[in-house]
Amino acid sequence: MTQSTPVLIDTDPGLDDVLALVLALRSPAVDVRAITVVAGNVSLARCTQNVLRILEVLDLDSPPPVFPGCEKPLSPPVVRAEHVHGSDGIGGVSKDFPVRHLQARSTHAVTAIIDAARRLKRRLTVIALGPLTNVASALAQDAPAMRGIGRLVVMGGSADGRGNATPSAEFNFFSDPSAARAVMRSGMPVVEVGLTVTQKAILPKARFDRQLALVTREPLRSFLAACAEPYFEFCLKHEGADGCALHDPLAVAAAIEPGLLSTDRLHCDVVTAQGLTRGRMLVEAGGRDRDGPRIQVATAVDTPRFIDLFLGTVCSP
Ligand code: RIB
Ligand code: CA
Question: Which atom of ligand 1 is found nearest the CA of 13?
Fold first, then answer.
């Protein structure tokens, strides 16, 4: 068996973050060394409690440390997604799954990210599932260490310009466009997993329900069912789809099996000015070196293989 990849996950749970974290924490292919928390879908405090909740539900022998990070974006305004994820960030189910014993560390997430980058260097993969505030802040403090990691897989942006937070901006980039622009143009080894591919990574509800029945572990099975229900409901009501886009789980899967995605090396920029295009991702294939470094932009996904990987890991007995 190949050695598992050390990863640090930066997250803002978030219903799809829940599914992404369970995928990472149940996968033998990745070794989750730390989880850092960023405000995004809901407040930092609620996102932090949701990470602890997921770890308690999974009842791991040695859960990874959890480090709270930035509460506000690099530049205002603060944008949340409670209309998607509920006021508690996980569809209102937090009341049924209280955090009983785990606690977050007192070290700031930015410090934890820099420490991991300095220690693990090219062995480290950072997976960013929320606004890039923590990552950009770590970059500002120690750019050489951050440029020296193996990979930064980012769920965010939209190479074809279609948005979900606004007509032209994806939520994570819209929440903190200054952080997104800094990271996209930093020279870090970025793999951008945006709506262009995540909106093709649809999990059919019927298939999920069938696979979930195979999960024997409690309270994991009940927790997954409770979190998935409001997410499927939102997708059906707002997108008319009898399935949900697995935005964050696809970013984790890209770290587990990079071959799931096809990518192009493109110049990338992000609109930071207030207005209709705030947070929009701009890509240019040709470009000139002065446009800044190129990043890997995901352009296609092997959806059947991804869904098999996701269900085979998350819903394993
Ligand atoms: O646009 C989707 C992204 O925004 C996901 O990370 C979701 O959790 C929200 O944060
Ligand atoms: Ca997220």
Answer: 8
- Whole-number Å distance between alpha carbons of 80 and 175: 8
Return the higher-pLDDT residue of 270 and 285: 270
pLDDT exceeds cutoff 80 at 292: no
> Measured in angstroms, how far is the CA atom of residue 131 from the centroid of ligand 2?
8
Kindly report the CA angle at 16 between 14 and 21, in degrees rounded to 5?
90
Residue 4 CB: number of other CB atoms within 10 A? 13
pTM over 0.70: yes
**CA 290 – ligand 2 centroid, Å:** 32
The rounded mean pLDDT for the chain is: 95
Peptide bond preceding 219 in cis form (omega within 30 of 0): yes
By most ligand atoms within 8 Å of CB, the mutation choice from 44, 134, 248, 250 for ligand 1 is 248
Q: Return the sign of the alpha-carbon dihedral for residues 193, 198, 201, 205.
A: positive
pLDDT, residue 167, reads 96
Give the binding-site residues of ligand 1, using a 6 Å CB cut-off: 12, 14, 16-17, 40-41, 81, 129-130, 155, 164, 170-172, 247-248
Smallest CA-to-CA distance from 188 within 143, 251, 220, 227 is with 143
Ligand sitting nearest the alpha carbon of 176: 1
Q: What span, in angstroms and rounded, lies between the C-alpha atoms of 131 and 173?
A: 6
What is the signed CA dihedral for 208, 209, 214, 217, rounded to 10 degrees? 90
